[in-house]
Amino acid sequence: MARGESYDVWFLAADTVYRGVPYGVVTSWAEQGRVSPDDKVRPATVANAPWLRAGDHPRIADFLFRAADPPPQPGDTYEQLQAVEMDVQYKSRAEDDDDDVDMIPLIDISLVLLIFFMMTAAVSALSPVEVPDMKNASELSKDADAFTILIDKRASGETYFALRIGESLAPEDNNLVTPEDVLRRLDARLKEVQKPPEVRIACHKELDRSWVRDIARELDKRKSKDQIAFYGAEVNEKK
């Protein structure tokens, strides 16, 4: 298109002619529908140029406004469309393919178990150790010469040790201060007997059971040397 090209436009419906209309304005009118295909145009710079239908003009016809196809009317026949099967597979989203295990419930259960075991261990540590009843207690009770190592406490709460032979308790074997003292008295009494005696440990229920374990360990050494026949332990229920 030459610079400054213009056209004369003849609107047939209004029987009005616009002269020297720039080409860009003419095409804009055509796009807006103001210029119909039956209106006529001609170059404004060519003298006595013939009029030409806008719908037939090679440079304007493509810009003419065209209304959309009218909607179908009753009675119109159309080709029936057949259903078409398409081989399309559904692909799940990335979130659906997430197979990660939710660890939050597992962590909660682990913490609950940890707290439970910690509380159980704390309660067990504070609970007193129950010493089982002495084995072979019936046999010991029938032996009049059986030795009994007593671990008892006085009314003031002080702990003392004693060595009883049968039902008799000699003054030198009573009111001993430490386990070593009662073991020394035991060794002295073992030298006086003809055969290895039976020995039992009787501990007050409210006293520390560690003394029972320590004395039992020493008695086991003497049993291995055949100095005593056998030994056992019992809890003295006396308050």
TrEMBL record:
Give the InterPro entries listed for this entry. ExbD
Q: Name one GO cellular component term.
A: plasma membrane
What are the coiled-coil residue ranges?
none
What keywords were assigned to this record? Answer: Cell membrane, Membrane, Protein transport, Transmembrane, Transmembrane helix, Transport
* UniProt main location, coarse: membrane
| Source species, domain of life | Bacteria
- Pfam families, from UniProt? ExbD
Give me the segments passing through the membrane.
103-126
The molecule here is called: Biopolymer transport protein ExbD/TolR
